[in-house]
Amino acid sequence: MLHTVAYLELRPQTLAPALKCVERWLSREGRVGALHACWYSNLGPANRIMVWRGFDGEEVLIEEQHRLARSDDPFGAADYLAGLSSDVFREIDFVGPPSHAVRGPLFEVRDYVLRPDGLARLFELWRAGLPARLALAPWVTALYSLAGATPRVLHMYPWESLTQRNAIRDGATAVNWPPRDAPMQINLQEATIYLASAVSPIQ
Amino acid sequence: MSEPRDPLYDVTLVRVRPRTVPQALARLAGWLEAREQGDLVGCFFSELGTVNQILMLRRFADIRALLGERAQTPLSADPLGISELTLELTRNIAVAMPDAGQGPARGPYFEVRTDVLKPGSLGRALHFWQAALRHASPAFGAYTIAGDRLSIVHIWPWATLDERAQLVDDPLPINIWRAASPSDAPVSQRAEIFRAAAFSPMQ
């Protein structure tokens, strides 16, 4: 399964009207593919809406990317956009599809750009260490990029609260998460906390 | 609006360590020879602007082949065969602009102009692009549909750098924005001089 994850970078103080426009767009022209999440940032990069959709085939995905690039009003929010990126991602074979059953209300997206040869090694480490980490708390999923800065991974976590987040992350070191050599595969890291919009299937 | 049958391009930009361009090009040539899909259009290295960059353009008839390769490459132990030399790797997916590169382009110098567009402004950019084609013949032109922020990449050949340097910006035919109003203008622009690698079809 393929995915697109768009970051809509908004002009400051426009989140509320922009979110309404994006929600309306997702219910009309944007009803293409399967919507997984429409989240807006709360900590980390401010004034961002993330729209995450899944696609069954390459043709429909690329046609949608093409349509968005040529649109005069991408996501129905052109008036509010300071910047826009829309990248293509793939599911990781040993991770599988995302679950809509997870519950926030907070979602952390960790966005990593890796060393050029870091992805295979990172996956080897994750595959071995993931069961112990997921026994502590679920993640939403992880994806790797097929366009843009590469290699790049997104991994996403649902949290009840930031207190719970810190407790799980502190406790994860006891089960060797993250795996000891994983940080050596990573060049850049960004961690953003999001809240779900009303139309987001993952809440 | 959407024209998914327009040619698709793999636009790969690598920034390598200083004084490793010849070594990186030799390894990339070997990597390219082993590819079953994608036709190499051009491979260039930067001379003015950000130096130590390599730009690779490959044409794909089929999005499945392009995304399939993108899914596999980063999982190998040494993607592109130049990992130890690479500082940054960006791989965009782009669609050819109308009438781009119709004539035979001869360098040996190639001016690579990268214009980052405001979201929603590609239609205006294509209008200015087509107006510019009345005065000059580009070697290549495409707009991104996945990867970096929405941008157009257009490449113009020069026989000598003196020929290029004698032109000032205002009547410069390749400055496609010269008739644009400030509201249409791109967010940022780069104009860099590249030369063709020995194995590049475009020379």
Q: Quick recap of the structure?
A:
The complex is a heterodimer of chains A (203) and B (203). Chain A is an alpha+beta fold. Chain A has four helices and nine strands.
User: Which fold does the CATH topology of the largest domain in chain B refer to?
Assistant: Alpha-Beta Plaits
Helix tally of chain A equals 4
Report the average pLDDT across residues of chain B.
90
Describe the main β-sheet of chain A briefly: 8 strands, antiparallel, barrel
Query: Between the first and last Cα atoms of chain A, what is the distance in angstroms?
Result: 21 Å
Radius of gyration of chain B: 17 Å
Corresponding CATH architecture of the largest domain in chain B: 2-Layer Sandwich
**Name of the CATH first level of the largest domain in chain B:** Alpha Beta
What is the topology, as strand order, of the major beta sheet of chain B? Answer: 1-3-2-8-5-7-6-4
What are the key terms here?
heterodimer; A: alpha+beta; Alpha-Beta Plaits; 2 domains; 8-stranded antiparallel barrel; 4 helices; 9 strands; B: 203 residues; alpha+beta; 8 strands; 19% helix
Explain what this protein looks like in three dimensions.
The complex is a heterodimer of chains A (about 200) and B (about 200). With about 200 residues, chain A is an alpha+beta fold. Chain A has 2 domains: about 1-90, Alpha-Beta Plaits (2-Layer Sandwich); about 100-195, 2-Layer Sandwich (Alpha-Beta Plaits), CATH 3.30.70.100. Chain A contains 4 helices and 9 strands. Chain A has helices at about 15-25, 60-70, 120-135, 160-170; strands at about 1-10, 35-45, 50-55, 80-90, 105-115, 140-145, 150, 150-160, 185-195. An 8-stranded antiparallel barrel of chain A has the order 1-3-2-9-5-8-6-4. In chain A, a hairpin with a 4-residue loop joins strand 2 and strand 3. The longest helix of chain A is centred in the middle third of the chain and has 16 residues, at about 120-135. In chain B, about 20% of the residues lie in helices and about 35% in strands. The mean pLDDT of chain B is about 90. In chain B, strands 1-3-2-8-5-7-6-4 form an 8-stranded antiparallel β-barrel. Chain B is α+β, with helices and mostly antiparallel strands. In chain B, a hairpin with a 4-residue loop joins strand 2 and strand 3. Chain B folds into 2 domains: about 10-95, 2-Layer Sandwich (Alpha-Beta Plaits); about 95-195, Alpha-Beta Plaits (2-Layer Sandwich), CATH 3.30.70.100. Chain B is built from 4 helices and 8 strands, in the order E-H-E-E-H-E-E-H-E-E-H-E. The interface of A and B includes residues 65 and 116 of A.
